[in-house]
Structures
1.
Amino acid sequence: MQADELTIRTIKSRARATQRRDAHRRAVLAVIIAATRAALMATGRPFVIENVPGAPLLNPLQLCGTMFGLRVIRHRLFEIWPEPIWFPPSPCCHDGKDTGAGNRQPGKTNGFATGHSYITVVGNSYLIADGKSAMGIDWMVRRELSQAIPPAYTEWIGRQLLQRVQEAPAP
């Protein structure tokens, strides 16, 4: 067996292992979300479950920072019960250059100062000052910011839910 053939077999084997691991993670996530949903529904109160695109949420609403005039590309899904919200505040619009992790170049710093219109706030692929500005959050450190939901999302969803609760007929 030649080195190239061995390398190809190793790569294929690792790819299959990664696929199995990812499938297992998706299955575990589905169980966790279903259990969370059931517990929340049992309360009889309105609720919101947030997760990333691809998560097994029911009738999710997808929000992005660009819908709120933010300079961050941060897609998040929201399952809202008892009545889904179908229409986001405005369209998602990523016109312009972004600093996504795939655009990061070793030894170079990408950000608003280098002509980028938007940033993606993940891992270490952004300048902390740009991340805080883009997400409308000035009190977090990088580790927290990389996992955060922009306050504009939760404020908008909260206002929508409050309005629906106030408009609902009394029991």
2.
Amino acid sequence: MDETNTGPVAGESGYTASSSKPANVDETPLPALDAPWMNASLSPDERAALLLAQMTLAEKIDLVHGEYGPYGFYNAPIPHLGIPALTMADGPTGIHVSNAAVNEGRATAFPAPIALAATWDLATAEQYGDLIGNEAEATGHNVFLGRPTFGACSAIPLWRVRNTTI
């Protein structure tokens, strides 16, 4: 990113200033036959072990570390393993758009999730989730980073993000 955080800097990720999406990235899905870790009949632990065994150390580090790009947080795809690009948005009160090139820099500011929790209304909670999901998709994000659910921590004065926790 440049110093004013208004535009991406072209780099290994393939970002271009005119686009909010990485350029020239082959995201062709990997057939499940070639990727046993995509076999949903296996346990998550088995699938993770199979996938990790195929990853290089550099791929593991890149997946954990990522980079800061026009989406906020970004991990490049690993096409030969069937891992798509991860375009993450910070939360928890909606999609954080950190770049003016993405959706013209605009996003909806939702009420704090604790206000939603106070309604005890499942239909409202579902609508809230649908709206955030739709906005994530509209802004090119496929991972939403929200706060954990720690009801007990909300009563602890030192829990500094308690107003955003449900």
3.
Amino acid sequence: MTESDLRRMIWEALNTLHIRERVIRMSLEQSEDKTELLEQAEQYVKGQLQYDSSGHDWWHIYRVRKMAVALAKQEGANVTICELAALLHDVADAKLNPSKEEGLNKVQDWLQGRDLEKQDLEKQDLAHVMDIIANMSYSGGHSVPLQTLEGKIVQDADRLDAIGAIGIGRAFAYGGSRGRLMHKPGTVAQEFATEEEYRSHQGTTIQHFDEKLLKLRNLMSTEAARRAADRRHAYMEGFLKQFEREWEAEDLFDGE
């Protein structure tokens, strides 16, 4: 090997290292930008929802975000899209705004105020987030099925937080915030022909279990969410049986 060949090999090796360093640095910068966007979203959502007492507060968002990120990593989905949609989804909720359209406009206006180029996001990424938020609600069983993996993941995470021990607590929090009765013996679950009918219904909180919560287990899209839903569903069934026994004082002498 000549000295010229050796110099060329050293130069090529150094050049390769330089390129790798640039790629790593750019990747880290993009990651920091995305982290900045998510931090901005977190602060925005806290400002919007931190005082909510209907079960749609910041801590609901916190839990949905954690589950969405975990599911996204397991399923190989776009974690940033899932996390951003999970963070923002209830800012647009029709229950918390004068209308669904006003809620969606609020989120879209906030997103459009971000520097997309700096965040390494495309317009279609924001459109994807908006599509998830616009269509993930249960809506009395009349929602449009989500088509993307990211949408299904965020919807699964949100539905998981509506069932189990947390779901029970949220159901009574929401009912109380709307002045609904906890239970009225003799009332039966309703079926709703339209989303509007579902939204205007003023049933009891216990009715809500049959009208929505006990249906969610069979609506999960990802395998991990289905397994978690099975466990949470079983917990709700146990709660409802005990609730009925206590309502009628049938447990009065249990254990004696």
